[in-house]
Amino acid sequence: MTSAHTLVVRLPLETNMKFHLRLVVIIIGITFGIGLEGCQCKVVQFIFGDSLSDVGNNKYLSKSLAQASLPWYGIDLGNGLPNGRFSNGRTVADIIVMFTRSGDNMGLPRPPAFLDPSLAEDDILESGVNYASGGGGILNETGSYFVSCKE
């Protein structure tokens, strides 16, 4: 019969307590933001999705058949004209922004469409960006149903 041997390394109690004390201080510091008075953090949204979150990316895709350009798309938002959203007003992402704005006063900006030609790199870092595209999915075949092959 063979017996299993276990190697046990015992650290001095003082070393073990110092480690745990440091760990507790770090966790408390992170949790309550101790020492972060000078740090300015900004919360932005980077949105991925399909037509439920699309804020106009598809209107910049020339070969896309999934266009939100019919009169009822956008009638309840902005100027009442089609705006590239596959809804009559707000998308799910807009509603999340609305709740965070009123709920805890974060003041999140509405992320613009990634394909918007007026979008600059600084805007992406400042307000986030919406990559959602109607007809998009996780499989390569998903979008192929919504693209025109005719030129």
Automatic annotation (TrEMBL):
Coiled-coil stretches noted in the UniProt entry, renumbered to this chain: none
Transmembrane segments: 19-36
Hydrolase keyword on record: yes
Keyword vocabulary terms for this entry: Hydrolase, Membrane, Transmembrane, Transmembrane helix
Listed GO MF terms: hydrolase activity
Record carries keyword Transmembrane: yes
PANTHER family: GDSL LIPASE/ACYLHYDROLASE FAMILY PROTEIN (AFU_ORTHOLOGUE AFUA_4G14700), ZINC FINGER PROTEIN
Protein name: GDSL esterase/lipase
Native source species: Mucuna pruriens
Organism taxonomic ancestry: Eukaryota, Viridiplantae, Streptophyta, Embryophyta, Tracheophyta
